[in-house]
Write a structure and sequence with these properties.
alpha+beta; 16 helices; elongated; DNA integration; 413 residues; 8% strand; Integrase_DNA_bind_dom; DNA binding
């Protein structure tokens, strides 16, 4: 028990006989002649043996009992952990990341340099997190807040359908975001760290379903005869995704400035690849012919696949990421094909599978897909790696694909 009592505190505040009134164990009631009375803790730092004074708070906000409890916690942290409350408070006051939105802004700047899909990740954060806990102080966010968001997205809420895969994406985003905060020393723990897929959208199966040779033949044969439902540009995009082994937006968002059609090379820069790894892609002759047709169809645009509708509200000057997805989805919903639904990304898997069947080893096939790991130095010096071998692989791929795309080989033959 300290020296002060509640009645004594009220009397000292009213009469102000002096500025400092000791309660014991370093806790003082401060009654300045001007301003509000407050609680102050005096302590000695374990490392430097400096005497410091730490303001706990105003008396109107902290009762005598609360001030004693807080002082006891601070003394324990000073003794056991070597903490310095004044320094800790200084860190908090200097910290520019007060809320989760503040932290995400810094995290996003980093992600822009790391991955090509940063805009998609930002959109997910803004749609599902920012309006819920974005303005909450970092230290006040608890695992229950994360759990509510993940379950809502996984199970559906309001007019939104259940989106289990998106819930898993969100779980990984939040874990990485709070880990970023820990690295910056702006938050002490990660409230998203306990969560796993079973707590969000559930375990995911591999989402790569490549087409076999018969399915590829049927795919292009049926697409070729419905130009009003599936445009020629979409048709050639599907062919080029297999021929170049690239990801969807690496192709659909490509400017003509990246292509040297005369020398049959596509210079894909690192900032437009998923793993920030530049690559020079050799183009087989059929791929060059398809690109020349697209150049004519683009009507002088700087983009290989310019936006279909010219509008001030258009998000991008090239086709958006959902254009090809939606076009294919509609056809599969109409059961146009005899095989199960495929996604645009499965075209890349189809190319990888066919390269293996053509006899190219895994190392070369991975290089064609720009999948090999490596540090930044390796990425700079190896963008040309195995270029001639990769050219041979791309040409073999197009030797098989071109007759199907042109209609020389049709399903049923």
């Amino acid at each position: 028990m300290g020296k002060l009592y509640d009645k004594t505190v009220k009397k000292l505040i009213r009469e102000k006989p002096s500025v400092r009134h000791a309660d014991g164990n370093g806790l003082y009631l401060m009654t300045p002649k001007r301003g509000d009375a407050y609680w102050m803790l005096r302590y000695t730092t374990p490392a430097t043996k400096l005497r410091r004074e730490y303001t706990i708070g105003k008396v109107e906000d902290w009762s005598l009992a609360d001030a004693r409890d807080e002082a006891a916690k601070l003394r324990l942290a000073i003794k056991r952990e070597g903490a310095d409350p004044v320094q800790e408070r200084h860190k908090v006051n200097q910290n520019p990341f007060k809320t989760l939105n503040d932290l995400y802004a810094d995290y996003y700047a980093l992600r822009k340099r790391e991955i090509a899909s940063h805009q998609k990740e930002k959109s997910l954060y803004e749609r599902e997190v920012a309006w819920r806990i974005g303005k909450v102080e970092l230290e006040k966010i608890r695992p229950v807040d994360i759990s509510e968001i993940l379950r809502d997205v996984a199970n559906g809420y309001d007019a939104n359908k259940p989106r289990p895969t998106l819930s898993n994406d969100l779980m990984r985003l939040l874990r990485n975001l709070f880990d970023h905060g820990i690295k910056l020393d702006v938050t002490r723990f990660n409230p998203a760290s306990p969560f796993r897929p079973r707590d969000a959208g559930g375990e995911e199966k591999a989402a790569n379903y490549p087409m076999n040779e018969d399915e590829v033949t049927e795919f292009f044969t049926k697409l070729r005869v419905i130009p009003t439902q599936f445009s020629r540009e979409n048709y050639l995009a599907c062919a080029l995704l297999i021929a170049t082994c690239t990801r969807k937006m690496e192709l659909l968002a490509a400017p003509w400035s990246e292509f040297d059609l005369e020398n049959r090379i596509w210079y894909l820069p690192e900032e437009r690849t998923k793993k920030r790894r530049a690559i020079d892609i050799p183009l087989a002759e059929p791929a060059v012919e398809w690109l020349n047709e697209l150049k004519m169809r683009s009507c002088g645009s700087e983009w290989v696949f310019p936006a279909r509708r010219i509008s001030k509200k258009a998000r991008t000057p090239h086709v958006c990421e959902n254009t090809l997805n939606h076009a294919l989805k509609k056809l599969f919903e109409k059961e146009l094909f005899s095989f199960d639904k495929r996604r645009v990304h499965d075209l890349r898997g189809t190319a990888r599978t066919k390269l293996g069947k053509l006899g190219f080893d895994d190392n070369l096939a991975q290089r064609c897909l720009n999948q090999l790991p490596g540090n930044r130095t390796d990425r700079v010096y190896n963008r040309h790696a195995y270029f001639e071998e990769r050219r041979e692989a791309h040409e073999a791929l197009c030797d098989w694909l071109a007759p199907i795309v042109s209609g020389e080989v049709s399903s049923g033959e």
